[in-house]
């Protein structure tokens, strides 16, 4: 940005090469912006505007008489004292704390195991574990719903045949665990593929020293492979934060077969949906959606901060 | 036509390091224990799908009376398929068609937008680049489902709810796709190639279409497949945006069928229809992933390493 186009035009004496660079540069800027315009137009209309609009709506309340009335932070105070919302939030928080480590731990184990190529049929194993990702959450939940069924579900059939009685997968105590199992089934493969792809791209030089040292597979996994794919693992953690806090399809489908257990505030997202479309409380629903977004952003931020701090500490140690 | 260039890009992007590595992690010692453990784990992932296949061959009575994980009763797959595609005047085929239209147009659009933006971020320096890219990265963390509700309200104001646009347009935004394409393009397109094309007098857009796109093959497939799955599997957005069942995608349609089947009302036969419908609905995506795996795996490889 050394010379503005207007200046070069006024000074015809300027050396030609310099003038050419600046017009080339200008042309490249223009091209870059033109490449970006389509994405950012949709980005702004479908992401920024709804976000702002949700924030705006959340500050109002609809009155029976007189339509919308400014309510300040009233909806937020209501949400933060609404036991239904808080219980839902607690449920997805618990879901996140329990399910995500299990899912990502399994994904990491599979990725590392397949990366050693010591199992027969590694490629088939990889594809079969990944397969559930191609199954929509709706179908996965339908399927597991049948599998859990106390009457003709095969799990119950097997348990009864083994003399264990009928397991109550869909009872109030077990529902969250059953849901965790569905999500784990769906997403272990997806996370495994992200980690596996990262493992396959570790440069060979990193291994050479370890090979010479005669380090075993476990040492190698722990001190070379896992640190090397930390960015990929971080990515899966962030996606899992988002995924677990906004659970919707699973509770919504399970509420069909277990309506008394999966109540309409089971997860915050399901609650917001029911508030908006069953209770017609749009403003309050917008506040819940907005608040949920804030919670997700904060949790993602904390997770990243923690990882960065750990990395810095380890770097200063070594 | 582009397959040679594409293969070249794969080698640059991911397999380059893989080749040389195989010498150091040779397939010298097979571990029986690991093989057994892994295959037992595979059972967990495969059994539900096996159950789905087996159940799709049963009629409604056999579904309730025979063991779930093995065939039993009459082989009723053809009857089930026939019921599935004729019930409610062939509504199921319509839902399947809708899903195809929504997800393919959303995926094509999202891929094009992400590729153009990712290419610009990777290959140009321009004022505001840092800020715009940070905004994109930050947006990866915005939960799209939390946005669905306000988006719905905006679409209502614009009179666009209950149209295909209401499902397609919001699915065009893929900040992760932009990120992936930026990382991929930075590696796959050498700066010297762009310079050479410029010297030859090619315009910036021609360079993108004729040089850039060819080298981005695996990256394009990766972003396309992930947007395809996201739209194909989406339930929340179409559920709130659409209310006439001729416009439903397969996910909303199946959920509705399931709800109807659970309420019973003499329509008991519906359970076997729901199950057969579920099986039919997952076949296209499974096939897409199997056939395109070479591309998406290498596309993902370069995307997930650097951050």
TrEMBL record, chain A:
<dbReference type="InterPro" id="IPR050809">
    <property type="entry name" value="UgpAE/MalFG_permease"/>
</dbReference>
<feature type="transmembrane region" description="Helical">
    <location>
        <begin position="284"/>
        <end position="303"/>
    </location>
</feature>
<feature type="region of interest" description="Disordered">
    <location>
        <begin position="1"/>
        <end position="24"/>
    </location>
</feature>
<keyword id="KW-0813">Transport</keyword>
<feature type="transmembrane region" description="Helical">
    <location>
        <begin position="32"/>
        <end position="56"/>
    </location>
</feature>
<feature type="transmembrane region" description="Helical">
    <location>
        <begin position="127"/>
        <end position="147"/>
    </location>
</feature>
<keyword id="KW-1133">Transmembrane helix</keyword>
<keyword id="KW-1003">Cell membrane</keyword>
<feature type="transmembrane region" description="Helical">
    <location>
        <begin position="179"/>
        <end position="199"/>
    </location>
</feature>
<feature type="domain" description="ABC transmembrane type-1">
    <location>
        <begin position="89"/>
        <end position="303"/>
    </location>
</feature>
<dbReference type="Pfam" id="PF00528">
    <property type="entry name" value="BPD_transp_1"/>
</dbReference>
<keyword id="KW-0812">Transmembrane</keyword>
<dbReference type="InterPro" id="IPR000515">
    <property type="entry name" value="MetI-like"/>
</dbReference>
<keyword id="KW-0472">Membrane</keyword>
<dbReference type="InterPro" id="IPR035906">
    <property type="entry name" value="MetI-like_sf"/>
</dbReference>
<feature type="compositionally biased region" description="Low complexity">
    <location>
        <begin position="1"/>
        <end position="12"/>
    </location>
</feature>
<feature type="transmembrane region" description="Helical">
    <location>
        <begin position="92"/>
        <end position="115"/>
    </location>
</feature>
<protein>
    <submittedName>
        <fullName>Sugar ABC transporter permease</fullName>
    </submittedName>
</protein>
<comment type="similarity">
    <text>Belongs to the binding-protein-dependent transport system permease family.</text>
</comment>
<feature type="transmembrane region" description="Helical">
    <location>
        <begin position="228"/>
        <end position="249"/>
    </location>
</feature>
UniProtKB/TrEMBL annotation, chain B:
<keyword id="KW-1133">Transmembrane helix</keyword>
<dbReference type="InterPro" id="IPR000515">
    <property type="entry name" value="MetI-like"/>
</dbReference>
<feature type="transmembrane region" description="Helical">
    <location>
        <begin position="269"/>
        <end position="292"/>
    </location>
</feature>
<feature type="transmembrane region" description="Helical">
    <location>
        <begin position="131"/>
        <end position="153"/>
    </location>
</feature>
<feature type="transmembrane region" description="Helical">
    <location>
        <begin position="207"/>
        <end position="229"/>
    </location>
</feature>
<comment type="similarity">
    <text>Belongs to the binding-protein-dependent transport system permease family.</text>
</comment>
<keyword id="KW-0813">Transport</keyword>
<keyword id="KW-1003">Cell membrane</keyword>
<feature type="transmembrane region" description="Helical">
    <location>
        <begin position="31"/>
        <end position="53"/>
    </location>
</feature>
<feature type="transmembrane region" description="Helical">
    <location>
        <begin position="165"/>
        <end position="186"/>
    </location>
</feature>
<dbReference type="InterPro" id="IPR035906">
    <property type="entry name" value="MetI-like_sf"/>
</dbReference>
<keyword id="KW-0812">Transmembrane</keyword>
<protein>
    <submittedName>
        <fullName>Carbohydrate ABC transporter permease</fullName>
    </submittedName>
</protein>
<feature type="transmembrane region" description="Helical">
    <location>
        <begin position="100"/>
        <end position="122"/>
    </location>
</feature>
<keyword id="KW-0472">Membrane</keyword>
<dbReference type="Pfam" id="PF00528">
    <property type="entry name" value="BPD_transp_1"/>
</dbReference>
<feature type="domain" description="ABC transmembrane type-1">
    <location>
        <begin position="96"/>
        <end position="292"/>
    </location>
</feature>
